[in-house]
Backbone:
């Protein structure tokens, strides 16, 4: 789906009008709370993956950056999961956490988030 020039301009203006709503750096919110329902499952402790010294340096740098921004905090969770560095197409790295073991024991949400593409299709006719 491609947007016409006028549609692109309207989206640009809309985003610009809401720019003050979004800070320059990410942070935490007090407006939402999330919990993961694992039922009666015992905590699963997944050991960190073995990484190269360069990857370890990158992981430590990302953790320090996120601590300074306030988007993470030290944790003593009984459910530790390993970090995975995924290369982006532009050469940067994406810091990810492998939650496969946690996801395997997580109870499904009865109210899943709607699919974005379906929501956009519905709005297209509005």
Residues:
């Amino acid at each position: 789906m491609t947007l016409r020039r006028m549609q692109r301009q309207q989206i640009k203006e809309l985003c610009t009008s809401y720019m003050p709503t979004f800070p320059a750096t990410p942070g935490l919110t007090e407006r939402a709370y999330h919990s993961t329902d694992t039922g009666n499952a015992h905590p699963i402790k997944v050991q960190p993956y073995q990484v190269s010294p360069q990857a370890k340096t990158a992981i430590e740098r990302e953790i320090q950056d996120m601590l300074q921004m306030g988007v993470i905090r030290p944790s003593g969770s009984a459910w530790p999961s390993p970090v995975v560095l995924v290369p982006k197409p532009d050469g940067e790295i994406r810091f990810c956490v492998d939650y496969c073991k946690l996801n395997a024991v997580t109870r499904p949400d009865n109210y899943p988030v709607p699919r974005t593409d379906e929501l956009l299709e519905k709005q297209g006719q509005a």
Observations:
- Strands lie at 83-87, 93-97.
- The chain has four helices and two strands.
- Residues 23 and 81 are 29 Å apart (CA to CA).
